[in-house]
Amino acid sequence: MDSQHSDRFHEQSEAGIEYKTFAGVLEASQRAGKEQGGAQLDAAYIISKLEDVCSKRVQQFELRKNAGTRFQLSSTEEEHKLWQSESHTWLLLETLFNAFERQKPFSDKGPEALEWSDLDLIEHLHSTDSNFKHHSAVKSWLEVIAPVNITHIGTKRISPSAKPAGTLFSQPATTSTQTNYQDPDATTRDGVKLDEYNQRVEQGLLQAVWEYIRRGQIQEAKEACEKAGEPWRAESISGGDLYSVSTAFTDPKYDRLDGPIGNKTRGLWKGTCYALAKETTADQYERAIYGALCGDVQSVLPVCSSWEDHAWVRYNALVESMVEDRLSNFNRGGRSKTLPIPTTTVSNAKDIFDSIGNSDDQQLRNDSKDMFKTIQTSIILGQTDQMLTKMAREAKGASNNGAPLRPHMLRFMAHFVLLLRAKNFNVPKADGDFFIKSYVDFLISKRQYNIAPLYASFLPRQLQIETCSAYLKTIDGSKKERQGYLANIRKHGLDLHSILTATVDGLLEKNKSVSEGGDVKAGLKSSISAPTTAVESAQIKSLEWLTFETPQYLECLHRSNSLIRQYLAVGRLNAAFALYKSLPEDIAQFGPMGAMPTSLRQEHIYYGDLFAARMVLEQWRSLLKAQPKLGTSRTDELAWGMQFKKLAPATAAELEGLLRSKWLFDCILLGDDVRGQQLRKLRQIYLSELALNLHEVYFQSRETLPEFLEKSVEMANLIAAERDQEVPLHKELQDNGRLQELLSQIRLSSLELIDLNRSPFAY
């Protein structure tokens, strides 16, 4: 197998596994919920598990990418981005869920808020202000999903040729005497520059510190400065720590002493950071570091390269402004006229995404329109209902134009809708059902029959029936194989009875008979065992879906009787017989709660009587045809004669018994006009045929059984007799246009009796 085919094989295999993996998570949550008698789905469990599944897939793609095997030459890179975006989206949901439902309650610090520390005030704000909690959670999420690509941090060096006083710096050309530049402010204050190597090291450090801060890893940023030999920079970053009074841990291993921590003059520190951020001669990453620390936006934007970066810098400014407002309300820190702190125009989340979406940067505007970015934005803004309606409308339009929603996105949307519903969010019913049903249809198209019922169980009853019957109609295996597909439908509590009924009705509609205008007489001449057509075979096989369990017998009998009526009406006695044989022997004995309507049961029994009579008739015809010729041994003649003398009376009795019965007559019910008309027509056709068959048996058996000739004439009495409430047989034959045909046959019998000097009226 070449590498291209191998990659394609692995992608397809992984896709199938992923469908099952997602379904396994959903089913495990559903099962646990039912066992505990609580909610149907545990949203927190599902979000965490699905995020884990997606992040592992991202790792797999990154390993393949690093290996460099066909990553850029196929759709692998795009698929990688999809998995990464989905992972980020589940993580956003998990972050918000944890922020609002799993956060520890605020520890009461006492009634006097003025005595609380700065840290206490902000913790209380986080606990009581849902907006601050929400913005902080989104900011945290944007930090976690930032790419891990920390720049390598080098070590500055002193050139061996430089004099000790010169140390790390190169001197301005205008300086006539060498100045000792040892302090870190030298480059800004005096305009000197580091040598080329140390400039690169400095830029690398600044970029690394920015990347740490962008990811919310303040401690790592300080450690990077320490390792680079710039402890002063680490201290400058520490100024943002909120002031508090710590209590030592009782466990010595934590090694924390009692006393104040953090910065009591945080406002002054922020003003200093803001001044540094506005310093146009400073490196852009240094400006971004201090701009981010103080909550400025403009100084950080030049180093922002992604949608996430732009969202983070604005959320960072929003959170910092809310922190500052909170502290100012309690006269903490305070703003300095000499060193002002940033003021942001961002007042809410909507402003943030509007500013990004309306950016002058075309690439940023395009990124804002990415489907997963749109979903993430709607989650953050609490506008998932509007987003679902819009996406459903667009997906339906695209599908109509031959471009349905991509499988990856379809899978996400189905699970997203289920989770929103589990958390009682407002989900437009029709739009939510659209995504779930579309996913079920997709699973069916991929022959994922074992997991499709799980998702169908979340749909309204009618859609459950439509979706499950849709794939059952495509299964054309053996009866045993088809029975196996019903286990999962039953397992997930779906209406199996209605699904199977819809399946059969759909198949019968698909395989409609086209022989309604056939020649009935010609059909009746065929053997009852003649092969069925492909359409008839498909119709007969479709009914097997209703024969697997006795509760379906009633629906099966309704449809089998109806189909037999259709076959018999056009003379397809063989098809009717094939259908009859395919049914369970006890089909007419069981129904819902053990009750089977008498009319349905009796109709089925009558068809069995007809087929039994026809079978014995065909046996008699075969035996008649096998009558020994002249010259045959006497033994063979005697053997045949004994067999014929036994079979002919049995055949005549079978036929006459059926003619004398109420065949189908007592199945005709008031109010059931269509069925009643069909049954009356069948009586006309088959009672006429049976009468002619009976005469045939009598007349053709006369040589072996001479008394049968008289019986063939006596049939006139049977045909002419009145029958209580039933229609007389002569009327049935007359309405079917076969009375004259039978009378002609009886006339021949009479003439032959006369020729034999046996008057037909002598009896």
UniProtKB/TrEMBL annotation:
It holds the Pfam family Nup84_Nup100. It comes from the Eukaryota. It is found in: Nucleus, Nuclear pore complex; Nucleus membrane. Residues 161-189 are annotated as: Disordered. Keywords: Membrane, mRNA transport, Nuclear pore complex, Nucleus, Protein transport, Translocation, Transport. GO terms for cellular component: nuclear membrane; nuclear pore outer ring. The keyword Transport applies. The keyword Cytoplasm does not apply. Residues 168-182 have a biased composition (Polar residues). GO terms for molecular function: structural constituent of nuclear pore. GO terms for biological process: mRNA export from nucleus; post-transcriptional tethering of RNA polymerase II gene DNA at nuclear periphery; protein import into nucleus. Functions as a component of the nuclear pore complex (NPC). Belongs to the nucleoporin Nup84/Nup107 family. Part of the nuclear pore complex (NPC). This is Nuclear pore complex protein.
